[in-house]
Model the fold of this input.
Amino acid sequence: MPAPGTASMSLTALGQIETGLWQLDVYGKPPRQVCITDPVALVQVEHDQPGCSRFVIANEAKSSTVHYSCQRAGWGRTTVRVETPRAATIETQGIARNAPFDYSVQARRIGTCAAQTASKQR
Done:
């Protein structure tokens, strides 16, 4: 991941997202809670790792689309639609662990990050 704030500033929609504890809901999977310190992390919900290259496809007021590639881990194309500073819809697809993925995430801010979630920060 880039230094906090650098990529967020270049993605207009993600600049509106509040940092803090977010819950990510994917149909058919248990909810996942993550501490978002840089909203650009929402672009890579499938590839939770640093060092991926990114290419901005669309940069609009309420929506950002990014294609990213992670060495030896796969790639993805993600669109984040910001509904409010505390709610977003994420559409992501690509290849991870040598298999395709394609799903939608309902993301919402549920609070501030606590010490126990600090190890899961993105």
User: Anything to note?
Assistant: The CA atoms of residues 11 and 76 lie 17 Å apart.
